[in-house]
Fold this protein.
Amino acid sequence: MAVRAERAPVVIEESLAAKIVRLTAKAPVHLALLFIGILWLVPTAGLFVTSLLDPSDQASGGWWNFAFQPSAWTLENYTKMFDNERIVDALIITAQVTLGATILPIIVAALAAYALAWIDFPGRDWIFLTVIALLLVPIQMALIPMFSLYNRFALFDTVPGLILFHSAFALPFAIFLLRNFFAGIPKDLMEAARIDGASEWRLFFRVVLPLGLPAIASLAIFQVLFVWNDLLIGLVMAQQNQPIAPAIASQLRQFGSNLDVLAPAAFFSAVIPLVIFAAFQRYFVQGLLAGSVK
Amino acid sequence: MSGTTFRPEFPREGGTRANPKTAAWRGLLLPLGFLAPAIFFLGVWVVYPTFATMVRSLYSDRGDRFVGLENYRRLFSDDIIFTAIKNNFLWVLFIPLGVTAVGLVFAVLTERVRWSVAFKIAVFIPLAVSLFAVGVIWRIMYQQDPERGVINAAIVAVQGVVSERGVISTAAPSTDDLEGTTQTGISLKEPVRTGEVALLGLTAIRAPEIPEGAQDARAPEPLQGGITGVVWRDFKPGGGTPGEVEAEEVGLGGVTVELREPGSNRAVERTTTEADGTFAFEEVADGEYTVAVARNTFAEPFEGFNWLGPSLITPAIMLSYIWVSAGFAMVIIAAGLAAIPRDTIEAARTDGATEFQIFRRITIPQLMPVLTVVFVTQIIACLKIFDLVLAIAPGSSRNDATLLAFEMWRRAFSGQNLFGLGSAISTFLLLLFIPFLIVNVRRFRAEAR
Amino acid sequence: MRKRGFFLLALLVALLAFAAGCGGGEEEGAGGDTAAATGGGGDTGGGEDVSGSINVLAVWTGAEGEAFQAVLDGFKEQYPNVNVSYQSAQDPATVLSTSVEGGNPPDVAALPSPGIMADFAGRGALKPIDFARSAIEENYAPVWLELGTVENELYGLFFKGANKSTVWYNVAAFENAGVEPPEDWETFLQNAETLKASGTPAYSIGGADGWTLTDLFENIYLRTAGPEKYDQLATHEIPWTDQSVKDALAEMAKVLGDAENVAGGTSGALQTDFPTSVTQVFADPPKAAQVIEGDFVGGVIGAETQAEPETGFNVYAFPNIGDGPEGAVVGGGDVIVMFKDNPAARALIQYLATPDAAAIWAERGGFSSPNKNLDAEVYPDELTRTTATALAEAEVFRFDLSDLQPAAFGSDAMFSLLQDFLRNPEDVDGIAQKLEDAAAKAYGG
């Protein structure tokens, strides 16, 4: 179906002067990126340093004063966090919920997005409009009706219950994103495949999905992030089996600045999604190579 | 088939057309099959609660009485909610544009650089950190006190490089004989004649800021033809007697004292005090002079900004939000960039188009669907912001920083239990957006034709 | 095509099954199953007759959470067949709102204020605890019984108290300035002047957390207007525009308006949250000499500073003003309420009313009990003993006024309005009027 046009690689010989010109032309870009990148890291660096300080140092303010004083650093906040059995259990639960709540909505959304992008049927645009409108519904308002529903169907305080909740709320954005992506696929491609006699399912699996991989990858990243860090749903819909964010929240003291609990937790929680992001980054490039059609 | 212009389209044709009759039948069954799971989830978890909320908004806070539009009346007559609506407009005005633009710039820039992954990770980290933690760290950064907030600390450090001032940060006259502040310098009200002794007593001086090697203060002897005096910390435990140099009170050395023409700020002569705080102007022309402790003795009051105060709090929260969301925009736009076929761009390049032209004529149009996603998502995100307001705005600035989603949470969930009002705010939020959305979608459809 | 459809469906089902399988192991422990209890009605004794499984929700975590767990363990010893599971939440009000609306609240919970208790009682969510009446009458001063009553029904039992009429200070700062803890308001204000001259501002105000300002107001008001007027104001029998309120606000302005004497100045104070307002008093150098807040300040000092008791920090009682009541205490407390009525829950509540239950936590520190039968020797240090005894034995005790208000006023509007007052302490009349408007709205609506 897909025709790959190949261009013979053209070898360009660069003189030294030309090379310098090329690099210096890029210098402003490099410098700008470097400067912005460092600036962007400052708050996170602050969080990291804060997580290494003991509470009285944290309270005395000015984490940058301690940034270069390794003697003041301590891993105590982290060890306290991991010693806590509740936290460790919560991490496992969070992993389960995140996995399920990432895979499920992607599948459901891809199917729906395909239909909204490439199948013509009456009312299609209105359905799409509704989906976008549903992006607006704040999770808070769904909490109360769903709370009673969950209790009735014994979904309260269960991992599947959390997975379903997160999946449902991921759908509006997922469908929106994927549909716009799918819609961008060249019509000729689709036409050609249809003429070849491919059925809708085939089109979906073999053509659209692979081309949509960059979008699916970014969707996956965001969903992992959102579900991993979610506090509200986990707090209300779970009690004994809480994911990580509510579990940490349950460790916060009533009075006191709680930085010694929050900072290491926040930092550690960020590591997992970051690792996933770094891994999926390559996927973008692969998606590019796989998707350069013509 | 190369060289076809690539345009995003709303596809009009679709589905196999084997038999018109079955096509009509399949025409609905097929999409239904694709859409069924989505419809199930959305229907139960999203649509049903939405309607439940709309209905709830017509009942009292406790849920026992039907009150019709009463909650909406409360909504519109509330000053704080009005501020929230106003703030939401500001956010929708600046943020989607800002975030999309920043994301676009980042996505494009990183495309050209090999080490872009490191940069991308740096920009992405804020997203990985939970929103509440983001709020906490920015709240700390925004502290007005330069010893706590890194932003003001940076500003003060820059200031410190530029200006040269003393160490003493606070001081006040100890008696009514003196007037002035650390900004103007502190001086004796009554002019001093030659042969007299000037007593300049200061209080409110922080113990750590007393100059090193300070000795006990003593009042000097008057000098014929000159003016002598002492600058000292007019305080001892218990207070002591203001205006008198007493034992245990310490002199302030290294302080610049000015002799001024009476009634003017112009210094005729300057000298520095000894370790015990005494100073002497010898051989002074006869007459009256104002004796003052020069303002450069005192430290510049820090001029950082009051980020967390009512006037700057909204921009402050906006900034932290951009910090978080730029990564989001960048990732999605980068994915969109990755999907653009290279050939078209290469072809345009060899045809002699400049980078800018390529950007404007090819890249942007092809990115439109993706940019739309980011833009619209950001508009919606603006209307939902709540964690950041909770974490960054101190209670005193809350009413100035508030947004609708925050108000909704505040009235319904923070213990006030005003569920009727909360539901009304939610419904209002929803209704607010829909006409805007319809307009936008219509516009894009028209463009596609 | 149909084949593909089934394939997809099967995939979905498999996924759900996988997810269910993963979560299946943790299916037990779903909240709130109240097993039928045998041996009903056992008040004291008969510990083995009572059985069941109950959930308790409260705000205590960390060290406090451990202490409360120890109290619950003490309960378990007396009632070995009851299974108690404790869940902490930083904001119990939010969690409880949702769970009550959703129909599945915990059996027993600790609420931070009687105002919130009244809200829930009004919604019919609480069960009366009349069975505990005699236990409460035996162990508490009458005022605590009244506080737990809403519209003539007894709903709440106070387990943990807080003495909010205390002032904590930096010992070195006081020595440097040569001041002593004051006996009365005049000396208090004079001390402030002396402290300022010594180079350390007198007041550390956590203005970002509005409740510190309401506590200050209440302490002043109780002393200037007297307990009768306090009660009237608490129930909105007199308006906030009453002259007594304005007088108290004017006194308060003597503290708030002394901007140079406040750490960080006015704008700084408005941004300072409560924990920071404590730690900055014990920083080196201190940003201020005193923080006017309740006995829980001791806990924050212990956790977040290096200051030692009596050498680094100390405490004195909020000074009397004019000829107000001696030794008056404004205090707070956590009130235990019951959402589901069953023998196990009843047993727990009765147990919490006893001095033994209080002693378990008291000896660990960070806890004041309003229980008058608790032996003061149980408290671990002198400072706690002083503040706790002042609470339990106060001749004039009043509950924190803002906690008695409907939440929309007492936990929200009152805070912001007093923050506005901090911003502009000259505007006594204006703020009084706005307080009255907000109160009227909250009471009327």
Chain A touches chain B through 115 residues (CB under 8 Å).
